[in-house]
Amino acid sequence: MSPRLRQLLPSASLLLLALAFSAILLARAPAHEERDVVQERLDKASAPLRPGYTIGQTFFSRHAGLKAVELLLVVYDESRQLPPSAHIVLTLERMDRADISPIRVELAAQGLKHNQRLRFNVGPLADSRYATYRFTLSCGADYGLGFWHTTSEAYAYGEMWEGATKGPGDLYFVTLYDYRPVDALGDLWHAVRRYGRYLPALSVLLLLPGLVLCLHLLPAGRCDAPSHLALALALSVAAWPLMLLWATVAGLNLAKGGIWSLVAILLVAGLWGGIRKAREANAHRGNAGGLAREPSSRPDYMPDITLAVVLLLTLATRLLHVRE
Predict the structure, then answer these.
(1) Minimal CA–CA distance to 54: which of 110, 158, 134?
(2) Other C-beta atoms within 10 Å of 81: how many?
(3) Considering only CA atoms, which of 273, 198, 263 is closest in space to residue 236?
(4) Rounded-to-integer distance, Cα 36 and Cα 161, Å
(5) Burial zone of 189 (CB within 10 Å; 0-12 exposed, 13-18 middle, 19+ buried)
């Protein structure tokens, strides 16, 4: 084994152990509940549910793990005592697959309050990603219970139903789903497959500010390639927010090609830094051959200038926030 490999072996072993430990944590991590569809506009209460009158809503689920549906209740007479047998029933149907049986959830109606959020637990449903559903609300008798909705279009991917007829507007409702770390990795993989062709260009764009700063701030040959790349990435992560902030302050419209102005400035700065590095390398080679004069002892003020500029921009940013 070469000395270089022997030196890298402990670090590689620690990295593999860290990756294995992270994989175990991801596999065992509990799911996090998130919102999917959120329609919280309202301006009208539905009629009370009763035999022969139901209300419902279709919606599009964007995520796997559909877990619950929340609605806002209307109680017409809070002083009314409901029997223990009174229930509100939610029936969830899969509209794009006829082979899946509907899910029926019952909630006791006794003791419910006006404007109470009702949660109907329907899952989690593992195959709910990109699925279309309809839930229908019903009661076995007229208990004076309804639900809030809008009278105008509020949700573009579904409709409210009154019985077998499409009603105006949409119900007030929120859908929730379980989001696991494995699902996050799946979403990341889906994004890579969809936008992977842009990754090389985005990687270059991400690293560009850091590479330019390294050209101006680092002496030649002071660190190896991996360290140089890591430093460039760290500088880029710090530089991009600052550049975008000041581009916005300057009124530069990044959505209409303004981003290319920043890229052009970075390329010019990188070209200047590359020319400086090439001149320094030529002077160093000349000194090594004994053909040039003694190297100049003049200090390099570029790191100090860069630090002063960063501090000045930071102070100006604080002053802008105070003024606002």
Answers:
(1) 134
(2) 8
(3) 263
(4) 21
(5) exposed
**Domains, the chain, ranges and CATH?**
32-179 (2.60.120), 198-323 (no CATH)
Phi, psi of 150 (to 5 degrees): -105, 160
Q: Helix, strand or coil for residue 220?
A: coil
pLDDT higher than 90, residue 17:
no
Alpha carbon distance 230, 237 (integer Å): 11
For residue range 167-217, list pLDDT tens digits in order: 889 999 999 999 888 777 777 888 888 887 877 877 777 878 887 877 777
The one-letter code for the residue type at 223 is C
Give the DSSP per-residue string, 21-56. Answer: HHHHHHHHPPPEEEEEEEE----EEPPPPBTTB-EE
The pTM assigned to this predicted structure is 0.61
Residue 293: phi, psi to the nearest 5? Answer: -70, 170
Least confident of 147-161, 177-191, 242-256: 242-256
Tokens 């995520």 label which residue?
63
* Crossing angle of helices 3-28 and 181-195, rounded to 10°: 120
